[in-house]
Amino acid sequence: MEDKIEKKLREELGDHFIEYELKPSNKKKGIWIRISAEGNRKAAKILINAFKARFSTTSSVEHSSFIELIYHFAIDEEGLAVNLKADVLKTNLMVETIADIVPGAEFIEREIYDIFGITFRNHPNPKRLILSDDWKEGEYPLRKSFRVDKDET
C-alpha cells in the first residue's frame, strides 16, 4: 500500500511532491510526505478518494522562516498513518483550506490561524475559535516571538 500511495501522489502532484519517507509512528506504519503548500488540496483529495484515508488532524511547527503544517491521515484497514508536510513561508502565511473537502478540518484550521497566524483561503467560517474577538491582531500565542508581559507590582 505504501508504494501505491507514493506512486500515486508523485504522479498526480508532479512538482508539488517533494520527498517521501517511510517510518513507524505510534505502533503504526507511517508515511511522511513533504509537499508544497500549493499541493495540499490535491493531496488530501487523492488520499481520501483513492485510498479511503480518514483525516485525523493538522498540526503545526514553527521554524525560522516558515511554519510547517502537517496534515495527519489514517488508513485504518492498513494500520497506516499518512502525514503530509507543507511549509508555509512566514512572508506569506496563507494556504488554501481543505475544510470544504474534509469538513472535520474546519475547526483545526481556525485554531491554527488563532495560535500561529496562518490564513486559510476560502475557509467556510474564518472567525476566531479559541482567542477572543478583541485579541490583538498579529500576536499568535504559539509563535516563538510571542511574549507575555508580566506586571511586576
Brief account:
The chain has helices spanning 2-13, 40-51, 105-116, and strands at residues 17-22, 29-36, 54-62, 66-75, 80-89, 94-96, 119-121. It is an alpha/beta fold and 153 residues long. The protein has a domain at 2-91: 2,3-Dihydroxybiphenyl 1,2-Dioxygenase, domain 1.
Structural account:
- This protein is an alpha/beta fold.
- It has a domain of 90 residues: 2,3-Dihydroxybiphenyl 1,2-Dioxygenase, domain 1.
- 24% of the residues lie in helices and 32% in strands.
- The protein is built from 3 helices and 7 strands.
- The strands form 2 sheets. It has a 5-stranded mixed beta sheet. It has a two-stranded parallel ribbon with strand order 6-7.
- A hairpin with a 6-residue loop joins strand 1 and strand 2.
- Helix 1 crosses helix 2.
- The termini are far apart.
- The relative contact order is 0.14.
- The model has no long low-confidence stretch (mean pLDDT 92).
Q: Could you say what the CATH topology of the domain at 2-91 is called?
A: 2,3-Dihydroxybiphenyl 1,2-Dioxygenase, domain 1
State the CATH class of the domain at 2-91: Alpha Beta
CATH architecture of the domain at 2-91: Roll
| Integer-rounded radius of gyration | 17 Å
Mean pLDDT: 92
Shape descriptor:
elongated
> What is the element string, with H for helices and E for strands?
HEEHEEEEHE
Number of helices: 3
CATH superfamily of the domain at 2-91: 2,3-Dihydroxybiphenyl 1,2-Dioxygenase, domain 1
Number-wise, the strands total 7
Structural class determined from secondary elements: alpha/beta
For the largest sheet, list the strands in their spatial order: 1-2-5-4-3
Percent of residues in beta strands: 25-35%
Q: Segments where pLDDT lies below 50 for 5+ residues?
A: none
Could you give the distance between the termini? 61 Å
**Major sheet size, sense and barrel closure:** 5 strands, mixed
Helix proportion range: 10-25%
